Amino acid sequence: MKKNILIISTSLRKGSNSERLADEFMSGAKAAGHSVEKIEIRDKKIGFCRGCLACQHTGKCVIGDDANTIAGKMLTADTIVFATPVYYYEMSGQMKTILDRANPLYFADYRFRKIYLLATAADENEDAVNGALTGLNGWISCFEKASLAGTVFAGGVDKADEMEQHPALEKAYRMGKGV
């Protein structure tokens, strides 16, 4: 069955390691016949959530920026994939901001069921991704129809050219193909 997949790349660095994972996931998903859109937030204007909770009554954030468009695409996606660099053993601040700004989806009739995390870090220890996983799982727990379907972690990469031969690229491709 063809799925509508949304990939949100949260690195601000063009050609980043996490974006390379996102591209491989996207290639695999397209090879499997799915419809895939990748959003790179480095080109977007996204403000911080104000905590006003107006979105829970209106279904839309009062801040008029690109986060509203992204949340709208999240609403209609069957699968959402987040790609993030790990900073200080946590997801990027940009990813956290996107999760916060997706608050209008909380009471909405969202379509997504499966969530994936693609993460990279300079630290090669597999535990380096745990903080990002904890944060994402906290967000997912607010959406009872959704679940974490998979994670790809590429550790030991800092500079973009270090990613090219990393085994996580093949894992991301296979995961995308298996969605």
Task: Give a written overview of the molecule.
With 179 residues, the protein is an alpha/beta fold. Helix content is 34%, strand content 22%. The protein contains six helices and six strands. It has helices at 17-31, 55-58, 66-76, 93-101, 130-140, 167-177, and strands spanning 4-9, 35-40, 79-87, 90-91, 114-121, 147-155. Strands 1, 2, 3, 4, 5 and 6 form a six-stranded mixed beta sheet that branches. Helix 1 (17-31) runs parallel beside helix 6. The longest helix is centred in the first third of the chain and has 15 residues, at 17-31. The model has no long low-confidence stretch (mean pLDDT 96).
The biggest beta sheet reads: 6 strands, mixed
Oligomeric assembly:
single chain
Uncertain stretches of 5 or more adjacent residues: none
**SS element count, helices:** 6
Overall shape: it is globular
Q: Averaged pLDDT, please?
A: 96
Q: Briefly note the structural class of the backbone.
A: alpha/beta
Number of beta strands: 6
User: What is the ordering of alpha helices and beta strands?
Assistant: EHEHHEEHEHEH
What Rg do the Cα atoms give?
Answer: 15 Å
**Beta content:** 15-25%
Span between termini: 10 Å
Helicity, in percent? 25-40%
TL;DR of this structure?
Residues 4-122 form the NADPH-dependent FMN reductase-like domain. The chain is of the alpha/beta class and 179 residues long. 34% of the residues lie in helices and 22% in strands.
